[in-house]
Amino acid sequence: MHIVCMNVFGKIHEVGQVVNHTENFKTAKFVLETQDQYPQKLQFQLLNDKADLSSSIKPGQFAKIHFHIKGKEWKGKYYTNLNAWKIDLGEQNPNPHQNAVQEVIEQSQEEKIDSISLEEEDLEF
Known about the structure:
mainly beta; 7-stranded antiparallel β-sheet; 1 helix; 7 strands
């Protein structure tokens, strides 16, 4: 399994309330507007213990969001979530002309071995 961690810089556009789904599961959503040539509004979610981070962010603040992408299928429909796990407030964009999303791939040695064997099996020309 690959865990792809990314970060993006932008301005907080909107912050939602913490929603308690069950006793052990809560979420909070917020929207970040990128500072690219063509700004994008991206919705992120904070899960469980990270949901409380939403109380520290306000619309108009600049931030660097660290997140990973999760996707799943449920009843024939596909869903993609941007799960934030760290928020750096007051960050300044080091280069406004630079692509806002930066990718960092992290994986353990076991995951590398698993992914190599899976890739080899998937190669059917």
